[in-house]
Amino acid sequence: MPLLKFNSILTLTAVGAVIAAGSDSAFLGKNGAEVHANVFDCHSCDKCVVGENPNNQVLTSSDCAPCAMGAQTWWPCNVPLLCACASSEPTSAPTASPEPAPEPTPAPTTPTPQPTPAPTTTMTMTTPEPTAAPRATTTPEPTPASATTTPQASPMPTPVPEFGCSGCATCAAVVDNSAGQAVTDAECAPCAMGAQTWWPCNLDGLCRCSGATLVPTSAPTPTTTKPTPTPTHGPFPSPSPTPPSPTPPASAEVCSEEGPSCDFTPGEGISSWFTEELFNEMFPNICSSSCHGCNMLTYKCLIKATLMYPDFAQSGSDEDNKRELAAWLGEMSQETTGGGCGASTENSDGTCSCGSMWCDGHPGGGCSTWGLCFVEEAGGSYCSPSSTYPCVPGKEYKGRGPKQLSWNYNYGQFSEQFCGDRSILLENPQRVATNPTLAWASSIWFWFTGGACNPGETCKPSCHDVFLGTKPMCAGDVQANRKYGLGWVTNVINGGLECGGAGQGKCDYRVHSRVRFYKHFCGILDVSPLAEGWTEEENLFCNEQSNYVQAPPQVC
To answer: I want to staple 452 with a disulfide (CB 3.0 to 4.6 A). Which of 64, 128, 310, 409 is the partner?
Structure first.
């Protein structure tokens, strides 16, 4: 088996067997099944179950299942010996299948997650931090209307919950937790402000607020009413690009369980230059038997969704349009990846390397050909208390769609602005993984809004604006060293985990994977990944930018 992540030799003992790193040895797992353990755990096998679990964490085979083939990269997959290959000998990594996959099934995810996704099966998730027009193609893109500042009634002080860290800036472990799981302060730290959404953040009682909080105070503060890009539905004229709320869909079918047909007139919108052949070149493995995107994340439904946001990739510059499409699909590919970049390192010349990966030798771009692999996280409720977007009992607001839309407030606000009724997706969140138009639209909605923005909050900027440079550069942005381009987009999407001091340096494996997808897609679209004046260091990566936990968004 090739060495993928570790170079040191590790010796383990399980039921009297000695297992050396780099070799596969069978032993009995917690469930009594014969498993094959190695230092890579489940990176190279198609079935994963509970392994030796030396610290006796509360764990089931369902928790380990998404780790198969290295699809999920967080807990429990990233903790040695918690999970192990089951039954048969480890298999080689999935390879592309020329035949369409059967009807998609729930991804064993999920990272975003993820990326779960990350793919997650997922993806390296990248689950979003809590947050988060019409024009003829021959005319310049309208300048986004400036945000308006309105006085806000003084909110009542909000108590900080003892457990759960979605409303506080510092998060610590509950060592003596009721679940009996081994958890540390370092593992809980990313849960602050809800930035990380998977283990240990998604289990009650493992982490708790510690230190100063960022909950609303009783003092009145100005709030930003961010104009929402207006989706259009049907042949009627597009409304003004700056209304406070979008026009509801012309047909309820748009937000139904399976959605409408995705037929469109050839040459409409970006289909005039972004063809199905180019889409297939970008995603040759989407119909692999290892993936679940084949019948959901289709080219036709992508185009149909972009037509509802007519400012997307429709500026006066062909090169900017291609770069924006490559950036959007690159970020979404990392959220849903079946390949990704598992162990990125920085080389002596400052460039990044993913190390050895199972998909390196795949034709057409190696691991960069495995985007849009997964659609839905395996599990997770992601419910944050909210009177505006209340969770519906029994519903899960886990990662779904190309963006892996997560949390009740994102489902609720997207439903409110796109479907015209917040309750539609709060009551039926699964539709984002069963309705292709909703799946793609949820991703574009996030691209144009930066995610949900509740009353009393200052909104993050839109990915569209920070990529193209149409967002005004506030004094706080300058101080935070934010630069227009892909790096700032990553900061909006998942900066609390990947950018500034939160990430693992320039070559954080998630950031590097996003950059790699972006550059690969720019190559297919025959456009330079660097706009005039850009550099890779400043405009594609985000390690030198403060994230939004460190430097909150401002109005300017």
So the answer is: 409
For 277, residues 6+ apart whose C-beta sits below 8 A from its C-beta are none
Distance separating alpha carbons of residues 191 and 168, to the nearest angstrom: 9
Q: Please tell me the distance from the alpha carbon of residue 176 to that of residue 150, in angstroms, as a whole number.
A: 46
List all residues 6 or more positions away from 497 whose beta carbon is below 8 Å from its beta carbon: 126, 129, 190, 195, 196, 503, 510
E strand or H helix at 127: none
What is the distance between the alpha carbons of residues 436 and 253, in angstroms, rounded to a whole number? 12
What is the predicted pLDDT for the residue at 400? 97
Q: How far apart are CA 150 and CA 347, in angstroms?
A: 49
Asked if 249 contacts 308 with a C-beta cutoff of 8 angstroms, the reply is no
Give pLDDT tens digits for 348-404. 999 999 888 889 889 999 999 999 999 999 878 899 999 999 999 999 999 999 999
**Which residues are part of the catalytic machinery?**
335
Out of 102-106, 260-264, 343-347, the most confident range is 260-264
Let me know: does 184 contact 190? Beta carbons within 8 Å.
no
Residue among 124, 484, 524 nearest 332 (CA):
124
**Do residues 198 and 109 lie in contact, with contact meaning Cβ atoms separated by under 8 Å?**
no
Which 3 state secondary structure label does DSSP give 401?
coil
441 membership: H or E segment, kind and range:
helix 436-449
Q: 322-352: buried (b, 16+ CB within 10 Å) or exposed (e) per residue?
A: bbbbbbbbbbbbbbbbbbbbbebebeeeeeb
d(CA 442, CA 297): 12
What contacts 84, CB < 8 A, 6 or more positions away? 27, 29, 35, 36, 37, 38, 41, 42, 48, 49, 50, 51, 52, 64
3-state secondary structure of 299: helix
Rounded to an integer, the average pLDDT of 459-466 is 96
Measured distance CA(33)–CA(88) in Å, rounded: 11
